[in-house]
Amino acid sequence: MASLNLSPDEIKVLESVRQRLAQVVSSLQKFKDDVVHSQPLPPASSIQASTTIIQQNLRTLTSFVAENATLLERIALHPSTNFPGRQHEAILLQLLRKKPEPSVETLLDEGRETARKLGGDGNAGAWKAQRALWKWAREYCDERIGQYAREETLQVYTAEERAMGIENVRTGLRKSMDEEEDEDEDEDEEGDEGNGVKDGGKTGVAGGDELAKMARFKLARNSVVGRFEMPPNADWEAKRKMVGVGVGVGKFPGR
């Protein structure tokens, strides 16, 4: 090694380059064998894993070469006098070649052209497209949410249901909300007249049943317009055992 005029650290750099090149060649050869000799082709997950390994090895190699570019550029390759040049002439010519092969040069030119179109580091174009996509999504969402707030918030039926005809919609609701509220008020008045005078406790029972009915109606109405959360004042589990419905922290009469 003394004849090479290289320090031990520089020798380690060359050895690291050799090992990384061997990893790239090995991963490429394995991927080629999997694709060519496998019948049927390997699953998509296996192909994706192989390409990921190849990309990682290439990225590691290019990063290492870029970090040690100064050393690699000043090193000149000369065969020793005892190298069997006649027996291994092809290897010797390949090692001493200063320019890439024509096929490799074509691939390099295509890669440079693609990087130039995408941007300086090859990612600028992708970032521009992603920013444009997010901008479009934000503008569309703002417009659509505004339209929903202005036109569709209080609609009982969806646009699709109105297009097909609301008479064909099967929701279990056959009466309008106003008619249902009027009937609820009439039933409440009848309950007060028939039971409230005789027994004050029964008034709470009627009121609790009425509130439970209204809560069920609101839940059904909300499900029609796509609101599936339960009203915060509907205590469904307690309603089975107790009279009345809890609202907030207070309780209705008859509880």
TrEMBL record:
GO cellular component, one term: mediator complex
Alphabetically ordered keywords of this record: Activator, Nucleus, Transcription, Transcription regulation
Compartments (UniProt record): Nucleus
Superkingdom assignment: Eukaryota
Cell inner membrane listed as a keyword: no
MF terms (GO), sorted A to Z: RNA polymerase II cis-regulatory region sequence-specific DNA binding; transcription coregulator activity
Pfam families linked to this entry: Med8 (PF10232)
Renumbered residue ranges of the record's region Disordered: 170-207
GO biological process: regulation of transcription by RNA polymerase II
Ranges of compositional bias, category Acidic residues: 178-193
Family: Belongs to the Mediator complex subunit 8 family.
Quaternary structure annotation from Swiss-Prot or TrEMBL: Component of the Mediator complex.
The protein's role, per its UniProt record: Component of the Mediator complex, a coactivator involved in the regulated transcription of nearly all RNA polymerase II-dependent genes. Mediator functions as a bridge to convey information from gene-specific regulatory proteins to the basal RNA polymerase II transcription machinery. Mediator is recruited to promoters by direct interactions with regulatory proteins and serves as a scaffold for the assembly of a functional preinitiation complex with RNA polymerase II and the general transcription factors.
Protein name: Mediator of RNA polymerase II transcription subunit 8
Source species of the chain: Lomentospora prolificans
Source species taxonomy: Eukaryota, Fungi, Dikarya, Ascomycota, Pezizomycotina
